[in-house]
Please model this.
Amino acid sequence: MAGRETLPGRVWKFGDDVDTDAIIPGRFLILNRPEELAKHAFEGVRPEFKDQVKPGDIIVAGENFGCGSSREHAPLALKGAGVRCVIAKSFARIFFRNSINIGVTLLECPDTDRIAEGDVLEIDEAQGIITNQTKNEIYRAKPLPEFLMDIVRSGGLIDFARKMVERMSREKTREKGREAE
Amino acid sequence: MIMACIIMSGNLTITEKIFSRAAGRPCQAGDYVLADIDRAMTHDITGPLAVEGFYEIMKNQKDKKVWDPEKIVVLFDHQVPADSLNAAQNHIMLRKFVNDQGISNFYDIFQGVCHQVMPEMGHVTPGMLVVGSDSHTCAYGAIGAFATGIGSTDMAAAFALGKLWFRVPETLKFQVDGRLGDRVYSKDVILKLIGDVGADGARYQACEYGGEIVRDLDVSQRMTISNMAIEMGGKAGVIEPDRKTDDYIRQRVPEYHPDRDMKSDEGAQFSAVRKYDLSEMPPQVACPHNVDNVVDIDRVEGKKIDQVFIGSCTNGRFEDLKIAADVMGGRPVAKGVRMIVIPASRTEYMKALKAGLVEQFMNAGAMVEAPCCGPCMGGSFGLLGPGEVGLSTSNRNFKGRQGSPDAFVYLGSPATAAASAIKGCITDPRSV
Ligand code: SF4
Model:
């Protein structure tokens, strides 16, 4: 797990107020699989993104990332593209909820101005420590509360709930077993 | 826990108190919590997706049971009686879900609109944390619950776990003082507030309404105010419970014991407190195509209308119908105007029937339909055609919501709707 979480990734840099229309234009909302959506991610604003993005890449932005319509397709497109994490100064609230619920890691960090396109970052999500290998700098992000990280690590709310239900039913079976003894 | 309570007491909002209880630890605005759900409501439009998600969660389980069938409420109201094959299929799927899960709080096509039925049948009491897969779930704030709309994925997880994660919201307090003038109602109050702060003004915050005017309103009128919190972006629209709330709840939940601490403390932190004196306020109207496009009624008086709709979870209760019937005073609907009246629930319909209101509306030339959402979201009947103008007591006037994208919808109180119906154009109810 620690391996995945500290693997370095390359930065795609964006500004303030990146809206969900920019992330995935409205005409693609008929698609709903992450891989299909990923083929059109940022199509209008960064046409090269969809072809050049690599699994493990990182998106870095300014204030209010993910504003606009509440479409779940936006974080799904990022997930489909293999984006490992979005770091921004702040996130739009529904985008925040949707991202956690489908398993995209978000980090709030005030220093994103110091990070440039193409920088390589190493991220410790649990501690909220971002190491910029290109610039040799370290930034602090507000780590997500542990139970939200659990949801993200599980792959989203549905998978998290499945794991939790399975754990609860195992505990129940074990209890029954003990009673039978 | 007790220690913590002592430290925390004296400076919490109602919302923070509700979340502290539901999360099992003291919490404040800004905290992320995993909270226990007291009630989860879903209906015929958003229910099917939630149920699919639920079975997706349970796919490896032999026993695919919801967390607590007693705490789930399922109702059909948006497309009733089934208005398409698609609706019929959704109904079949949800009936099976309800049966398989042993959900006894199920209301088939006959009971009425979710946000009226939930409080009316005693499913919500003060201090509860309630979620519904519908944006106007905030309506139950009128009886001192924290109630909020959630998406289908969240609802699926709630069905399975009985818990959901939340960020405890800041509270925007509205202090509404004065006394409402003649033929000015809670609908005018909430339109005024929305027009004032804008569609984004309470974004992600809990709205809390207080002050003399709110205290003077009965529970039915308070529901109109809480219902529309979402139209300014609010997550909830809470009103501190009082004697009137207690009476309303006791009629439905005899074992209910009021908790007088269910109020925001003196030292509670609000993101802002907005103070109003609305004694002089005239009736308000929201103009096409945004709910925050609100004006005093004299700005739009005389605007010709084609259809009047009195109903919805916002203003479809007995009290609303009574106000409308009184304003009409036995006069007929104007020539060329269609008037559709839909009581919000079976109970409200029966009250209107017994009081002779249904007969009055029908004598005046209106249609009275069985309880359902009706034209409110333009799902089935009562749609407006291109170029037509409607006046509605519901809560949204977005382009295309009640039919053609080229239609125009104005929102007002039942009194304004009734006065306009008999005149054939938007009319100040104080002038008829
Ligand atoms: S009456 Fe309108 S606002 Fe209320 S639940 Fe039905 S569609 Fe939604």
